[in-house]
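Subject: sequence -> structure tokens, single chain

Hey, anyone have a minute? Need the predicted structure for the following. Not urgent.
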Amino acid sequence: MRVAVLGGEVRRRSFLGSLSKPAYAALGVAAAGAFVFWIGVRGVVGGVVGILLLGGTWALVHPWSGRRSLIENWLWTLRWRLRRRAGHTQFIAPSVRATAAEDATGLLWELPVPLGRVEPLPLTDTGYDDLFVLHHHNPGERPYLSVVLEVQGQAAGLRSEHSYDTTSIRYGVLLAQLGKQGSFIRGLQQINRILPHDPALHRAFIASRVSTRPGLAALVEAYEDLVDGTALVAEQHRNYLVARFPLTLEFYEEARPFGTGVVGWAGLVREELARLADLASRAELSRPQVLGEQRTCAVLRSLQDPSWPIDRHEGARWDNCWQSYVTAAEQLVVNERWYTRTAMLPRDGIAPAPLGPRWLAPLLTSVSPSVIRTLSVRMEFVPDKTARIRAVKDVTQDSASVLGDAKSGSIDDGTDSVLLSASQRRLRDLAPGSGHQGVDWSMAISVTAADPAELRRACMRVANEAAGSAITDLVWQDEAHDLAVLSTYPLARGMAVA
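Reply:
Had a minute. Here:
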């Protein structure tokens, strides 16, 4: 069976361990302050004050819990309180604004604040009216375009391991082709939306055909019980790919032959989407279909409020698909009836063990009783030369750590060995001629239920099946669920881009 090892990045590679860049800056300022005290206040007092300043700063910035430091927790809580005070943690949908009173700040947002600056490209009467392209241009990041494709998932049922291996290889070819220099799709988001099966249509179909003659009541009741029992474990899966196009100088130059401004952008996007659809078909992601405005907005609306069927797209538009919500510390409440929590997979959240092509199957298909959930994976492609330079740097640093431990007689707890194994594996996979490209990726999971108690049970069931998928840790985004849930929407969000 074809296997891969995705884990191994169990900590940051840095001189001071698992500290972040702001922590380095704080320690640098503290060290400078300690030096000033040592020089300016001579004697024991200056030395003691300097040591206390440096030691106190280290205690504040060190991640004692393994996730965040004390000062990070304080800043996280402060940010949550400031956002809530400014009214950024709630949104009133346009459809209910006519009857809704203004919030405490007197502000009614046109779009949810966490979305930032994003709007559809104006493509009416340009020849590209069927395309729905979102233009994202938030401060601090490179502007980009995003487009949604719906695909049919890979076939299930009785399949051999060789069949799964072949499909996995073909999907790898798709990613490698998108990662090449000539591709303008520099990022891809894969979304799997899983909902419990709704038997309403089946009930209506059977009810219209069952005989009304007497004596069938027991049979009909038994069939009703069978449908009810099946609905607890039966699920429907919807699969989407979101293509991300950074607006670079190369993109502008390549788009110029198709037309000026957004017309040229749309022309180049259509060419790249045709290539992506062909690659997806070869990877057994059948029936790829680029979604227009109504169908894209219907997907967005259903992801927020499952009461809206994902295929009911009539009248769905960008300015009316966003639903009212209020953010609590532990959940996002949409339309006062649906409760959602979102978790991110941390850097060290996957066990460094060999994984087969079906390693996520428990999380995707084995949650029982079924719960409403969305699994999103963001991938940002890195050209092979750049990825190879990174791998060489990491192998050098990891080898130095292992040799340093051996030279000093230190006992490695396994961290350095796992890091070295991961970096060596990346360097070996990226060897010239392999056809492989580099990739940065992240994963997010959202869980939705109709009440808080059911949401807690649903999150527990999802966490249990995640453990069966080699996922050792999920970080629930408390005090930021309105921000984190955007990473599970088809917007190509969810990770920083180098």
